[in-house]
Amino acid sequence: MWEPATTQVLFSLRAPHATPRSPATTAAALSPCGALLATAGADCAVRLWSCDDGALLSCLVGHSAPPSLLCWAPDGRALASGGGDDPPRVWAVPAVDVGPQAG
Fold first, then answer.
1. Listed residue (68, 62, 56, 65) closest to 89, CA to CA
2. What is the SS3 assignment for 40?
3. How buried is 46 (Cβ within 10 angstroms: 0-12 exposed, 13-18 middle, 19+ buried)?
4. What's the pTM value of the predicted model, to 2 decimals?
5. What beta strand segments (E) does 1-103 contain?
6. What is the tens place of the pLDDT at every residue in 36-76?
7. Which residue in 27, 40, 50, 38 sits closest to 98, CA to CA?
8. Which of 15, 31, 22, 24 is nearest to 74 (CA)?
9. Is 57 left (phi over 0), alpha (psi -120 to 50) or beta?
10. Which of 12, 22, 35, 51 has the CB geometry, 3.0–4.6 Å to 42, for a possible disulfide?
């Protein structure tokens, strides 16, 4: 993750599912509030990361093929994942406290 104003690297996500023959990340999507980053990987899991510190918050399993698409609900309370030969899945996402909003 980078700080847009300065392009300074804030932290790097360490994907545990990378292999030499498979890409570590097959899809990524930022939550509507900007507090969470969802990633899908070659290990068929969907992971939720904190955009504040890069902490892994949740690992969602259930796909048998690596998801290639991620899409957040407008309110950020659900995440859809799909691609490959699997039917799409919709995951409930707990509310995240994003603190005071700028503006």
1. 62
2. strand
3. buried
4. 0.81
5. 2-3, 8-9, 25-30, 36-41, 46-50, 56-60, 69-72, 78-83, 86-92
6. 999 998 888 999 999 988 888 999 999 999 999 999 999 99
7. 50
8. 31
9. alpha
10. 22
Structure tokens at 49: 């990361």
What is the helix (H) or strand (E) element at residue 26, kind and residue range?
strand 25-30
Alpha helices, H only, 29-80:
none
- Tokens for 91, please give them: 């995951």
Is the CB of residue 101 less than 8 Å from the CB of residue 67? no
Q: What is the DSSP letter of 22?
A: B
Render the burial of 17-42: b for 16+ CB within 10 Å, e for the rest.
Answer: beeeeeeeebbebebeeebbbbbbbb
pLDDT score for 43: 86
Residue type, 16: P
